[in-house]
Amino acid sequence: MTDFDSLKPDPSMIGDVADAPFAILPEPEAMFRKRAARLRAGGDNNALTPYIHFLAALCDVQADCVAATPLADGPSQNSARPLKGERCAPGDDFDRVARDFFKRAAEIPMPEPSKAALANLDGLPLAPLVRALAEDEDAAHGMAEHIFVAAALQVYLTRLSARLDVTKLEPDEPGVCPSCGAHAASSFVAGWRGAQGLRFCSCAMCSTLWRYVRVRCVACGTTKGISYREIDGAGGAAKAECCAECGAYTKIIYQNIAPDAEPAADDILSLGLDVLVSEEGWRRAGFNPFLIGY
Ligand SMILES: [Zn+2]
Ligand SMILES: [Zn+2]
Predict the structure, then answer these.
(1) What pTM, to 2 d.p., does this model score?
(2) Does the 5-24+168-287 domain belong in CATH 3.90.1670.10?
(3) Distance from the CA of 182 to the center of ligand 1, in angstroms?
(4) Cα 173 to middle of ligand 2, angstroms
(5) Proximal ligand: closest to the CA of 218
(6) Does the fold of domain 30-39+46-161 match that of domain 5-24+168-287?
(7) If you measure from the C-alpha of residue 232 to the centroid of ligand 1, how many angstroms do you get, rounded to a whole number?
(8) Are 230 and 236 in contact (CB under 8 A)?
(9) 154 alpha carbon to ligand 1 midpoint, in Å?
(10) How many whole angstroms separate alpha carbon 147 and alpha carbon 48?
(11) What is the C-alpha separation between 135 and 280, in angstroms, rounded?
(12) The CATH number fitting domain 30-39+46-161, selected from 3.90.1670.10, 3.40.50.1000, 3.40.50.12780, 3.40.50.720
């Protein structure tokens, strides 16, 4: 279904939008709490309910971890994608953050295989698991450990991205996070004053949001052959932007329709839309480590 009317900017907001920043950096603790609350609120009556409640508990642990371990000096910002090295091969600080996260996560109720995977991480070097997540999503597929490593890496990278100088971030290749170089998980039309109606891509790893054209494929950058799908009767807060040029789709979450929407949480809560469009043959472009295997 194509819905171009809803894509027109609100003219009354143009003055607001002119000053909107290119990127928005996270406030880590508040963001993980909001994500947990959003997952909890939207996670019932969903085929994934037990998994969503587990993820909500993980997000609360992520929030608890934000202030728990000290980090060395802020990242240097002398190049594009300043956090790419930390995402693909993080240093000792990450190890401390991750070990603290694993210890706290062990308190969450979870199925036996997840518990075993978490215990298994105790003796494992983390670098190969991080590399699998960063370079080869297929290698991470099916590993029960990956979800915990990804969640710990989110804490670490989000803490680092919060320390970046937002004015130094610049547009990168289509759909690539200007902070850490990960591919966008999904996209988001803002409902808050100052950015109303603007579209942002969201990074599932470092939680940076960055501006993106409203009607443009996030995977290949084309503006041609774009169409939209949504689940009938679901309220229209999530749509899939499908690209005939490259066959990929990226979700758009509309915060003006769902004011409590949070990019990563709503990406998970709208999994039914992924099922619908993938059955039509579209390929998901967005990378969200909590959706590997779905
Ligand atoms: Zn990022
Ligand atoms: Zn495309």
Answers:
(1) 0.91
(2) yes
(3) 5
(4) 13
(5) 2
(6) yes
(7) 32
(8) yes
(9) 9
(10) 16
(11) 27
(12) 3.90.1670.10
Rounded CA gap, 146 and 204, in Å? 14
Residues, CB within 5 angstroms of ligand 2 (ion):
217, 219-220, 243, 245-246
The values of phi and psi at residue 28, to 5°, are -55, -55
What is the residue-level pLDDT of the chain in tens, covering all 294 positions? 334 344 444 444 444 566 778 999 999 999 999 999 999 998 787 778 999 999 999 999 999 999 888 888 777 888 899 999 999 999 889 999 999 999 999 999 999 989 999 999 988 899 988 998 887 655 555 578 889 999 999 999 999 999 999 999 999 999 999 999 999 999 999 988 888 899 999 999 999 999 999 999 999 999 999 999 999 988 889 999 999 999 999 999 999 899 999 999 999 999 999 999 999 999 999 888 888 766
Question: Where along the chain do its domains lie?
Answer: 5-24+168-287, 30-39+46-161
Burial of 167 (0-12, 13-18, 19+ CB in 10 A): exposed
- Which residues lie across from 102 on neighbouring strands? none
